Please model this.
Amino acid sequence: MCLGIPGQIVEITDKTRKLGLVDVSGVKREVNLACIVNEEHPVADCVGDWVLVHVGFAMSRIDEAEAAETLKILEQLGEVQDELAAMRASAEALGKAS
Amino acid sequence: MKYVDEFRDPEKAKFLLREIDKIVAAIASERDRPISIMEVCGGHTHSIFKYGIETILPDAIELIHGPGCPVCVLPMGRVDDCVALAEMPNMIFTTFGDAMRVPGSRKSLMQARAEGADVRMVYSPLDALELARQNPEKEVVFFGLGFETTMPSTALTILQGEADGISNFSLFCNHITIIPTIKAILDSPDLQLDGFLGPGHVSMVIGTDPYRFISEHYKRPLVVAGFEPLDVLHSVWMVLKQIAEGRAEIENQYNRIVPDDGNNVALESVSKVFQLREFFEWRGLGSIDHSGVRVRDAYAAYDAEKKFSVPAIKIADPKSCQCGEVLKGVIKPWDCKVFGRACKPETPLGALMVSSEGACAAYYQYGDIEKIHETTDAA
Ligand code: SF4
Model:
């Protein structure tokens, strides 16, 4: 919950609500992008960005190499598995396949 | 140095360890107690244990595992409130998975669910909001907890709920705030700390400025640290260097993620939706002034404490639990009489045993249990 997990924004799903689809280690889920956009970097420009996702919110933009290193450590800590399981369980509860 | 080879840059890790040894050799002789450094964040605690960082640091350094795991500091009365909410008719109670096993005075949320309450684990508050949208005939409560890292996500969810006109969604707010907590620790008479590793992801939201009082008023160094093992080592070295040079400053080791002024959008949403509570009760630490937030009156319709009647009874921690002393670093987990015996990860008595970010669970999982039992039995 506190460490978050890196993912890549693959699609903007709702421009007004600032929502996008993020690929986290192969699991895709909708993430709120409000905290990483501003006038210089609007929602429309976010596709391809790597971000650190905390409980469904992108909280920071990171570079790709950093994302890879972070994922490696999170995997060793067992956090990746936990986060992905939580995402899947939540998607199931909502009746959405991921 | 069996672990160092797993670090991002083993050569740099070895270099840092040599430098740490040098500084410690130079300053330890002038001191009559170990150099105590507290990591405030549970993510650091987890990383420190997983990578055996305590074992590779010189003995003269003592790492104190602070109260930075939000699940671990949740008081029993609050868990009881969750259970009471979850057992209301027509209710879907949603929570992060971590909170499911925290013991209440009668039962945990896990037990409440087994007895028929509709408790659902969600990954995000957004999913709880979605559940409310899908089930307009039900009430959906989200159990919000965590420091400033997760606070913006709950605030933004409430703002989204309001914008979408969803009226069957509310928040049981248990968010806590880091600064008053560190202040309470610094004011605690039984604790002597020489420096801090500051939380990385909390700081990503609040920035580094709010920590100034620690260097200016309390004259202690704080280094905002990333959670990777190399980050932790690097940050310990930065703290030691400050001590050796007689400095007390706020430094940012994790500047690749943490901007000094924090995240504006996140901070705005938090101040829009939340206000400080006069005080908030912590497991083990008692009541700390202004350490929690509540939903502002303007958003009362989204506040589960206003919408429903929550028992809000204060329950004392079980007598055998010494979570408070462990949290403050006054005793080590294995000094607690029930550690590894009545209190284990499968059957936690205290919350520090529930999450892998809690000091007791971390020692239990990664520590040398045999050795620990030898020392307690001998004592
Ligand atoms: S062993 Fe259990 S009861 Fe004792 S301090 Fe740790 S969590 Fe609390």
Notes: Strands of chain A lie at 5-14, 19-24, 27-32, 50-54, 57-62.
